[in-house]
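Working notes for the structural subgroup meeting. M.R. asked for a predicted model of this chain before we commit to crystallization trials. I am recording the input and output together here so anyone reviewing the notebook later can reproduce the run.

Input as submitted:
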Amino acid sequence: MSLTLLLDLDDTLLDSNMDEFIPVYFHALGKAMSKHLPADMLLKYLMQGTEAMISNDNPTETLEDVFSREFYPNLDVGRDILDPEIARFYEEIFPSLSYLTKARPEAVDFVEWAFSQGYRVAISTNPLFPKAAIDHRLRWAGLDPEKYPFEIVSSFEGFHFSKPNPAYLAEVLGGLGWPEGPVLVVGDDSVRDLLAAEELGLAAYWIVDDAATLPEGRKMPLGRGKIGGLRNWIESIDEKMLLPRYQAKTAILATAKAIPAALAAMLSNLPANAWTDSPHPDEWSLVEIVSHLRDVEREVNLSRIQTFLSEDNPFISADDTDVWAAERGYAEQDGERALRDFIAARMDTLAALKNLSDEDWQRSGRHAIFGPVTLQEQLGFMAEHDRVHLRQIYKVIRKE
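Returned structure, recorded in C-alpha cell form:
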C-alpha cells in the first residue's frame, strides 16, 4: 500500500500540554524582548496576530504576512531591530522550553516504520509558529528534521491556512503534489484534526484515551487509540477505506482555496528556463499548464457557475480546452504573469462560491457528457481538474 500520512505533532508525536506551554513561551519571549517593548504590549499584539492567522481564509497571503500586518505596525520598534532579537530567541532561548514536553519513543518507532514502508510522511502541525520553533519541537520529539525526510513540515512562513480550516489539509496535500492513493490524518484534536479531515473527505486516526467521546452528531473517525497501536491498525485496515472522498461541499471549497496557495509556493523563484522545459517532449511545460488553468478559470469555471445561477436546468457544453495550448501559443507566454492571472481569476471564483446558498449548490443542469448534474457535481469536476493539473505540475518540477 502506498500511503500518505499527515501527522500532527503536539500530543500526537510529542507529549505536550499547550495550556501549560503557551504561557511559559509567552513569558520567555516577553522577557527576551523587554528592553524593546513592554510585555503586555507584546502579548496583546502577539495574540492579535495569532487570531488573524487562525481566521485567515485568503490564499494570496501567507500566515507570516497576515501575522506581520497585525503585529509590527502596532509597535514602537522597527522590524530591523525586532527581527534579529526574535531570531536569537528561537535559536538560544526557545530550546530551553523542552522540559515542558516529553518524547514518545513509540512515535519515533512508528515514523521509522512508516519510512521503511516507503510511505510519504508530512508533519501537519498547526502552522502558527515559525519553522525554527517547529524544528525544535520535532527534535524534542526525537524526530530531528535533519535526519528524517519529511516531505512537508508546515510553518507560518509558507502556509496560508491553519487548523481547523480544511483548506489547511488541502494545502498540505497540494504541497505533496496531491497524491492519488490512500491518505490518513493522524491527530489528537477532535476539531483541528478530525473535523478538518472529515470536511476534506480524508480518513483519520484519533490519538486518544479509550474513554474519550465526540459531541453528539459528529462522525467517529475510522480508527482511534494510542500512537503505539497505529502500525498494527494500518496493517489490518483495507487500504480502500483510506481513499479520499472529495465530493462534499466543504472539500470542494477547500480544494478551490488551496490550489492557488499550493501553486504559488511550488512555482515561486523558478529560473526562467524552468517555465518552458518539459521532461517529455509530448507533454505540456509549466507555462502551458498554468496558462491552461488561467483560461479555464476565466472562460469555463466562472461562466458555468453563472449559467447555473441564471438559467433553469441549463445545458452545459463539453469544451475542448486542450486545443487552446496551440491555438493561443501558451508555450510563448509569460509563466509568472499567467500564474498571477490564474490566481486573480480564482479569487473571482471564490467570491462567487462564497455567495452561494445551499439551494444554489443543488441547482440542476444537463452536461453534454455526464448528463444530469447539480452545480455541486459540476464544481466537483472543477476541483478534480485542479488536482490533476497540480499533480502534473509537481511531476514536471521534479522531472518525473
